[in-house]
Amino acid sequence: MVYPRFINIILLSTTMLDILDKITYRYAPSRAISFETVHVFKALQLISKRSSRSKLIKELELGEGSIKTLIKHLKMYNLIYTNKCGTYLTEEGRGLYNKLFSFISECELPSSSIAIGRFNYAILLRGFAYVIRSGIEQRDAAIKVGALGATTLTYNQGFMMQGNIIESLENEPYEILMKLEPKDGDAIIIGSANDRLKAELGAKNAVIATLRMAGTSCKIR
Question: Which residue, 180, 185, 187, is CA-closest to 150?
Fold first, then answer.
């Protein structure tokens, strides 16, 4: 069930994803694009706190040429500006960032019975539990960007997996997930990988896939 108060958020997130997708388009005569929407997603987070080109290279693990193209495309859509001190979000970029992350919370997570990677990254999507099916779509999206996979939970008076309450979740991961302040109707996606960035990108790409699914369901309605 789609709660009415979330429909505007869903449609808004779909519009914002369309903007992020456009950042990844190739505009002649630019070089071939070697970054994806998920990299733009994380780049906005980094730039929201001020960032340098070297930091973007390090944190996104992309080459200098790719970061130059990414910055150029973000400027084309008036989402960022640069000066000698670094890279910043414009007013428009800050507005997009604030709206997109108004219903998202995230954290790192230790290995557990539900998150088996050496590194695990959890993202809560406020009000998106209704979108979750078997979790295969989220798993495939995570694998696409180099993660081992993704675990998808929902929350309804407790953490649930495929409609069943999880009773074996260890104390530490449980306490960390509760810091995300889950509420009934929320979804939690955990990306797992053998390195920290792939776990995070896996979770974020699974989130993007979930937002796309939500947007499709609203359009069908």
Answer: 187
Phi-psi region of 214 (alpha: psi -120 to 50; beta: other; left: phi over 0): alpha
Q: Contact at 8 Å (CB) between 34 and 63?
A: yes
CA distances from 182 to 6, 154, 172 (A): 15, 9, 16
Pick left, alpha or beta for residue 162 (phi over 0 → left; psi -120 to 50 → alpha; otherwise beta): left
CA separation for the pair 181, 204 (Å, rounded):
19
Residue 186 CA from chain centroid, whole number = 15
Per-residue pLDDT tens digits of the chain, which is 221 residues long: 444 445 555 555 667 888 899 999 987 666 678 899 999 999 999 999 888 999 999 999 999 999 999 999 999 999 999 998 899 999 999 999 998 888 999 999 999 888 889 999 999 999 999 899 999 999 999 999 999 999 999 999 999 988 788 877 888 899 999 999 999 999 999 999 999 999 999 999 999 999 998 876 554 44
Residue 72: CB atoms within 10 A of its CB come to: 12
3-state secondary structure of 155: strand
Instruction: For the chain, list the domains and their CATH numbers.
Output: 4-99 (1.10.10.10), 103-220 (3.30.1360.30)
Measure the CA–CA gap between 113 and 118, rounded to whole angstroms: 12
